[in-house]
């Protein structure tokens, strides 16, 4: 691992303390700044200009770094220099005008409504007395009901908690049929919880305390979803459980939590056609990110058109 220059570590500490950036984001920025240090070699940070940044980026591209990775790397460099340049009287931010190669556009995967209902309404899904089965059904319903990210779901508490040992960052407000989550960029939002999800969560809460153990700490005791040993459920456990359930339900695709988030967005747009509302519920800072789902919606309409219209045949 390449050692960071002291100003870079100071910037990361600033993001953690004052901007409340998450650990995963900070780790990614650290790796990107390490690339800048490796590229610069003996060149002082204060002497790096736009031409050098462009050269460094080209070198990483030649080494196999893809467009998305390059874009994130440039974002880290740009953010660092925006903070650092005024401190050392640099003329400008050397990474400000650079752009990464355009990444190919990939549509997010989404389940059809039929496959989603088959998954959520599989036989005995809501009637089991097994705590793990109740928990898994509640997680599935909440993912699809509210379009949560995996990290947002695992960080949820069953109610708001504030104590010297633990303060909630995300929590369930069952009385008002909503969850409050802390999303990307430490932005908090409130998202509705549908009736089916609420019922599944209530069913899980009936047995939740039986999963707690004497070794559960304050965070575990507050957690909405628990693992087998009474600790807050881990992201990897959620991924494995969803994949297993999808196979049992006969779904034709691998089920990742983000597939349910994509399905939520796509199905909401198909029904409501309210892009701004879906943007708010997903927690997207830029509506252009949400607009990706309009392409999914168009694919659905185009397929229906091809199947139904008497003169829609593409064959010559």
Brief rundown of the structure:
The chain has 316 residues and is mostly helical. The protein has 13 helices and 4 strands.
Describe the structure in your own words.
This protein is mainly alpha-helical and 316 residues long. The protein has 2 domains: 6-88, Tyrosine recombinase, N-terminal domain (DNA polymerase, domain 1), CATH 1.10.150.130; 113-302, Orthogonal Bundle (hpI Integrase, Chain A), CATH 1.10.443. The chain has 13 helices and 4 strands. It has helices at 6-18, 23-40, 50-62, 67-84, 113-120, 131-146, 150-154, 195-211, 218-222, 235-249, 257-272, 275-282, 287-308, and strands at residues 156-157, 170-173, 178-182, 188-192. The protein has a 4-stranded mixed β-sheet. A hairpin with a 4-residue loop joins strand 2 (170-173) and strand 3 (178-182). Helix 1 runs antiparallel to helix 2, helix 2 (23-40) crosses helix 3 (50-62) and helix 6 packs antiparallel against helix 8 (195-211). It is globular. It starts with 5 loop residues before the first helix and ends in an 8-residue tail after the last helix. The relative contact order is 0.10. The mean pLDDT is 85.
Output the keywords.
single chain; 316 residues; mainly alpha; DNA polymerase, domain 1; hpI Integrase, Chain A; four-stranded mixed sheet; 13 helices; 4 strands; 55% helix
* Count of helical stretches: 13
CATH class descriptor name of the largest domain: Mainly Alpha
* CATH architecture annotation of the largest domain: Orthogonal Bundle
What structural class results from the helix and strand content? mainly alpha
Question: Could you describe the largest sheet, including whether it forms a barrel?
Answer: 4 strands, mixed
Range of strand content: 5-15%
Q: Walk across the major sheet and give the strand order.
A: 1-2-3-4
Q: Fraction of residues in helices?
A: 55-70%
Gross geometry: globular
Q: In the CATH scheme, what's the topology name of the largest domain?
A: hpI Integrase, Chain A
Mean pLDDT level: 85
The poorly predicted ranges are none
Count structural domains: 2
């Amino acid at each position: 691992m390449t050692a960071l220059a002291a100003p870079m570590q100071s910037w990361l500490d600033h993001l953690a303390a004052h901007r409340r950036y998450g650990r995963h984001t900070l780790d990614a920025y650290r790796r990107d700044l390490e690339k800048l240090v490796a590229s610069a070699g003996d060149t002082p940070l204060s002497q790096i200009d736009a031409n050098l940044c462009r050269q460094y980026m080209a070198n990483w591209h030649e080494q196999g770094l893809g467009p998305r990775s390059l874009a994130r790397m440039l974002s880290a460099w740009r953010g660092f220099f925006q903070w650092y340049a005024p401190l050392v009287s640099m003329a400008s931010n050397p990474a400000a005008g650079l752009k990464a190669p355009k990444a190919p556009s990939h549509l997010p995967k989404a389940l059809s409504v039929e496959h989603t209902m088959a998954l959520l309404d599989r036989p005995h899904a809501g009637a089991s007395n097994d705590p793990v089965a109740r928990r898994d059904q509640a997680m599935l319903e909440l993912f699809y009901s509210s379009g949560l990210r995996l990290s947002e779901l695992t960080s949820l508490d069953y109610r708001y908690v504030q104590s010297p040992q633990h303060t909630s960052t995300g929590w369930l407000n069952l009385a008002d049929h909503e969850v409050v989550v802390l999303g990307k960029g430490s932005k908090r939002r409130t998202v509705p919880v549908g009736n089916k999800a609420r019922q599944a969560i209530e069913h899980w809460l009936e047995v939740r305390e039986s999963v707690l153990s004497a070794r559960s700490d304050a965070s575990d005791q507050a957690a909405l979803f628990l693992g087998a040993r009474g600790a807050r459920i881990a992201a990897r456990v959620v991924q494995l459980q969803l994949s297993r359930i999808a196979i049992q339900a006969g779904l034709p695709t691998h089920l990742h939590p983000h597939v349910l988030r994509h399905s939520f967005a796509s199905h909401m747009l198909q029904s409501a056609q309210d892009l701004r509302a879906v943007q708010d519920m997903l927690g997207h800072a830029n509506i252009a990110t949400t607009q990706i789902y309009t392409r999914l919606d168009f694919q659905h309409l185009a397929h229906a058109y091809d199947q139904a219209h008497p003169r829609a045949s593409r064959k010559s």
